[in-house]
Write a structure and sequence with these properties.
This protein is α+β, with helices and mostly antiparallel strands. About 60% of the residues lie in helices and about 10% in strands. β2 and β3 form a beta hairpin.
Length: about 425
């Protein structure tokens, strides 16, 4: 037999009521949709509901006191007033105080008292306790127990209708008493259904809050990964150019001080650009800086400046544009730029190449990026078919540069191939279909 405090916990594990809409994964909208009305969650109704649920014995004792007072007033005004009727009526109504703590036991106890009352031969207004007990079983117990209790009470209604005829005739009395039994049964079932629905709403709201928090954590992790990838591209490329220029300046400083000065000036410019890019990227993590203050992300239109910077580092790079450019969207623009940047950085750092060619081909809705150089193809590495060059550092196994480019292309439903070219050198080719945004 369940108690009032156990009842909500059992209901929270039940399936949602029929006709409700399952979760679609959109936590904020669903949480608003499943939020109970204010008149249910706030105000006098909510306070009374909480008191009834958290203090079952006190609230039921108050109900029993009201019923006993009304029944005693009625009993005092009828001819059958006496000690035995008063005792039976008091026992019937007193049992109501424990109806939610022991629903089935209270019903069986009141039914036994009512049968003894029937044998003694006096009707009582206190028999309303039977209807309260039936309502409680229907509201807090299983439907099978509720139907069994209704059957027992209906048998008592037949016996009372035949013996006492409260409505004047046995037929009318049976109809009246049966109606009260059915009303008590369906009232309890309705309350049980409403309680299950409210409990499910509350549980659903809690789950949606958890899902919302989880989605926020996932989004933050994805953003951290994106920022780490961007920082890798910026720092790797800029440092490669700076190191190459610094080495060149050191070599020519004794022969041509003017060219060495130009190289160091270019080092300064590359460093400033890298610092500006890093500040813009890390500014996303600052809560006190508006997004409008951040610099826009680079795109395909900035490939010329990228190529010029690499060319200044000593690598002869040519940029070719094939086809008619069309809008790619901000994300795809950044993807194109970062793939070319990473490929040229690997060429500077590992390939030992003298020439490179960057080709961007537009064939709406497809874009093809090709970065080819004349460097020495790396020797095969264990398990990967790739060696130390082009993003795979010697002695360090598999690098992250090629994986990062491949992930960027995959974000737009594309593919990336990186490996030795047929005519020698190294080739990086990415193809994707951007969605303008």
């Amino acid at each position: 037999m369940g108690t009032a405090t156990e009842f909500p916990s059992r209901l929270s594990a039940t399936a949602p009521p029929s006709g409700t809409v399952p979760a679609s994964g959109n936590a904020p909208e669903e949480q608003a949709a499943f939020q109970p009305p204010d008149e249910i969650t706030r105000g006098l109704f909510s306070s009374g509901r909480r008191f009834v649920r958290t203090h079952p014995l006190a609230s039921d004792a108050l109900l029993a006191s009201v019923l006993l007072t009304l029944s005693s007033v009625w009993l005092a005004g009828v001819p059958l007033a006496g000690v035995h009727p008063a005792i039976v009526q008091t026992a019937l109504i007193a049992a109501v105080a424990g109806r939610r703590l022991w629903p089935s036991a209270v019903f069986l106890f009141t039914s036994a008292l009512a049968f003894a009352q029937w044998l003694l031969g006096f009707p009582l207004m206190g028999d309303v306790a039977l209807l309260v007990a039936l309502y409680t079983v229907a509201a807090h117990q299983s439907r099978i127990r509720a139907l069994l209790a209704a059957g027992v009470l209906e048998a008592g209604a037949v016996m009372a209708a035949v013996k006492w005829e409260p409505a004047g005739t046995p037929a009318r009395s049976l109809l009246f008493l049966s109606a009260t039994v059915v009303a008590a049964l369906f009232a309890g079932l309705a309350v049980a259904s409403g309680s299950r629905y409210l409990t499910w709403l509350d549980e659903r709201a809690r789950r949606l809050e958890v899902e919302r928090d989880q989605q926020a954590v996932i989004a933050a992790a994805a953003e951290r990964t994106r920022i780490a990838r961007e920082l890798h591209d910026i720092v790797s490329h800029s440092l490669s150019v700076v190191i190459t220029l610094a080495d060149a300046a050191a070599v020519v400083s004794r022969i041509d001080a003017g060219r060495a000065g130009e190289a160091m000036t270019e080092v300064s410019e590359v460093g400033r650009r890298a610092l500006t890019d890093m500040r813009a990227m890390l500014g996303v993590l600052r809560t006190d800086e508006s997004p409008a203050a951040l610099m826009p992300q680079p795109g395909a239109a900035d490939l010329g400046a990228l190529v010029d910077g690499v060319r200044a580092a000593g690598l002869a790079v040519h940029l070719d544009v094939v086809g008619s450019p069309f809008p790619l969207g901000a994300a795809a623009e950044l993807t194109a730029y970062r793939i070319v940047q990473e490929a040229l950085t690997n060429t500077l750092r590992h390939a030992g190449a003298r020439h490179a060619r960057v080709t961007i081909g537009y064939d709406e809705p497809q874009v093809t990026l090709t970065v080819a150089d004349d460097g020495t193809p790396p020797s095969p590495g264990p398990g990967l078919g790739l060696g130390p060059g082009h993003g795979l550092g010697p002695g360090h196994g598999h690098g992250h540069g090629i994986d990062g480019m491949r992930e960027r292309a995959a974000l737009h439903g594309g593919t990336l191939r990186a490996g030795p070219a047929d005519g020698g050198g190294w080739l990086v080719e990415a193809t994707f279909r951007p969605v303008p945004g």
